Amino acid sequence: ETATGVKNAGATILRGGVYKMRTSPDAFQGLGSNALSFVDEVTRNLGMPIVSEVTDPRQVADFAQAVDMFQVGSRNMYNYELLRELGQFKKPVLLKRAFAATVDEWIKAADYVIKGGNDNVILCERGIRTFEPTTRNTLDLNSVAYLKAHTSFPVVVDPSHGTGRPELILPMSLAGVAAGADGLIIEVHPRPSEALSDAHQAITFEQFRTIVEQVTKVANALGRQVEKP
Q1: What is the DSSP letter of 97?
Q2: From CA 110, how far away is CA 67, in angstroms rounded?
Q3: CB proximity list for 114: less than 8 A, separation 6 or greater
Q4: Domain extents for the chain?
Q5: Dist. CA 124–CA 154, nearest whole Å
Q6: Are 68 and 51 a contacting pair, CB within 8 Å?
Q7: Beta bridge pairs of residue 70
Q8: pLDDT tens digits, residue range 146-188?
Q9: Nearest Cα to 16, choosing from 30, 5, 27?
Q10: Is beta strand 69-72 parallel, antiparallel or unpaired with respect to 93-96?
Q11: CA 170, CA 5: separation in Å to the nearest integer?
Q12: Res. 47 pLDDT band, cuts 50 70 90
């Protein structure tokens, strides 16, 4: 249901996790590797590429059979053994910034993957921890503009984790695109209050459709195109 809904609303890549790194050991941790077959079935039926988070070097080979792109979550940005292992595969790696990492540390983490033989790395700005408690994190759009000006990495923005507030996802999505982001990662659920993970920051299909429409307008005004499903 979710995969079909986001595709119809304008998504071009599906993010579906089978492992979920959580701050609390009591929070939902995902369904584990047994769910990889389900992920593969959904993506084949929809003809939609999928990105999924790997949390351990031992998972990578199995994931490589089922996903189109690996995700390294913020808590694993410093997991150098995982980064080295991902360097052995040719699939794209979406590398999220750790919430206390400098841009230089983030780039060096990407270099671990590249030096392993895989130069297909995409950086994801998902917010950093600051003294400000109003939002879950502080979305650092300075980093997006800097990376686009000084590196060749594709950069995407995660306004869902970057704000933790559904009402801020639209404006920060627009700001991210204006800063030069190549893509957005947004938490969407048919019934956000029922989501097992990050329910407080998930949005509905209709809200997501509005974001896609508004982002397309901003991108077009900047002479850029938005990929269609």
Answers
A1: P
A2: 20
A3: 87, 121
A4: 2-219
A5: 9
A6: yes
A7: 52, 93
A8: 999 999 999 999 999 999 999 999 999 999 999 999 999 999 9
A9: 30
A10: parallel
A11: 18
A12: confident
Distances from the Cα of 198 to the Cαs of 14, 62, 119, in angstroms?
16, 26, 31
Statement: residue 24 has pLDDT above 60: no
pLDDT of residue 19: 58
- Contact between 52 and 16 under an 8 Å Cβ cutoff? The reply is yes
Q: What CATH superfamily classification does 2-219 receive?
A: Aldolase class I (3.20.20.70)
Residue 151: how many CA atoms within 13 Å on its side-chain side? 21
* Structure tokens given for 204: 């509905």
Are 168 and 159 a contacting pair, CB within 8 Å? yes
| Strand arrangement, sheet containing 50-53 | 14-15, 50-53, 69-72, 93-96, 121-125, 155-157, 183-184
Cα gap 174→159, rounded to integer Å: 10
Amino acid code (one letter) for 196: L
- Which pair of tokens denotes residue 179? 């800063």
CA gap 37, 198 in Å, rounded: 23
Q: What is the structure's pLDDT at 25?
A: 52
SS3 47: coil
pLDDT tens-digit series, residues 92-113: 999 999 999 999 999 999 999 9
